[in-house]
DNA sequence: ACAATACGTAGGAATTTTCCTACATGTCAA
DNA sequence: TTGACATGTAGGAAAATTCCTACGTATTGT
């Protein structure tokens, strides 16, 4: 998951699919890269379940399946708690400080 | 940021720092890897601002500075909206279906 | 001053990732 | 059927990442 998101082209592909499904071809046209390279990036995204494909004649439509991103959200949680903890400790300190003036 | 999080050892280091600051040494002791390798991972995390260091004599304490993770949270947002959108469209369909029985 | 400890970094080997050019397959249109 | 399009994959070069040992520097305790 994290590895799949580590490449800017792959994040860009996901972002492109936010507007709806697109064919492999039209996705590839967005980049200076050769088409097969984009196909490999799509494969990485497919392997972690972030996109799914639907064959339609000689086109293949890719669409976004963001469910696996809930893992990322869950991973993030302890760090957000950590962050809130720090803020509230700071607030406590400020209160203590305010109390002796 | 995404690249910094792509390596399991680096994610583990962040996780270790949730419990509070630690010296480079004690962090390195957690892994089978040689200490300088861990030091390089710490450097990557430092470069993206996810950890900060405080020199204390011959020890160097690392602590978690999770602020940059807000970028991740922001990145995630459109995908969560996308997801909610899909769920609500599904709900609409189910309602429509329920209405003709 | 000297030895030991804690640490970062240089240099390089091994591995992985990225990206390319073929190439093979399946589909459509004439 | 034949030719053009859409696509995935194989094979390999190039680039990046990872991890090691060796080394340099600063600090501490004796």
Task: Explain what the structure shows.
- The structure is a homodimer of 101-residue chains.
- By secondary structure, chain A is α+β, with helices and mostly antiparallel strands.
- Chain A folds into 2 domains: 2-64, Winged helix-like DNA-binding domain superfamily/Winged helix DNA-binding domain (Arc Repressor Mutant, subunit A); 68-101.
- Helix content of chain A is 62%, strand content 14%.
- A 3-stranded antiparallel β-sheet of chain A has the order 1-3-2.
- The radius of gyration of chain A is 21 Å and the shape is elongated.
- The termini of chain A are far apart.
Structure at a glance:
Chain A is of the alpha+beta class.
Helix-strand topology string of chain A: HHEHHEEH
Identify the most extensive interface between protein chains: A-B, 21 and 21 residues
The main pleated sheet of chain A reads as: 3 strands, antiparallel
Low-confidence stretches of chain A: none
What is the multimeric organization of the chains shown?
homodimer
User: Care to count the β-strands of chain A?
Assistant: 3
> Which architecture of the largest domain in chain A per CATH?
Orthogonal Bundle
How does the overall form of chain A come out from the CA principal axes? elongated
Cα distance, first to last residue of chain A? 52 Å
The CATH superfamily of the largest domain in chain A turns out to be Winged helix-like DNA-binding domain superfamily/Winged helix DNA-binding domain
Structural class of chain A: alpha+beta
Average residue pLDDT of chain A = 92
CATH topology of the largest domain in chain A: Arc Repressor Mutant, subunit A
Q: Into which percentage range does the β-strand content of chain A fall? A: 5-15%
Total count of helical runs of at least 4 residues of chain A: 5
- Major sheet strand order of chain A: 1-3-2
Number of domains of chain A: 2
Cα-atom radius of gyration of chain A: 21 Å
- CATH class designation of the largest domain in chain A: Mainly Alpha
Summarize the amount of helix of chain A as a percent range.
55-70%
């Amino acid at each position: 998951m994290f590895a799949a998101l580590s490449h800017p082209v792959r994040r860009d592909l996901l972002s492109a699919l936010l507007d709806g499904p697109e064919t492999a071809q039209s996705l590839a046209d967005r980049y200076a890269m050769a088409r097969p390279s984009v196909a490999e990036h799509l494969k990485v995204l497919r392997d972690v379940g972030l996109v799914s494909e639907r064959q339609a004649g000689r086109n293949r439509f890719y669409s976004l399946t963001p469910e696996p991103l809930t893992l990322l959200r869950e991973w993030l949680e302890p760090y957000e708690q950590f962050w809130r903890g720090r803020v509230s400790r700071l607030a406590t300190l400020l209160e203590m400080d305010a109390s002796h003036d």
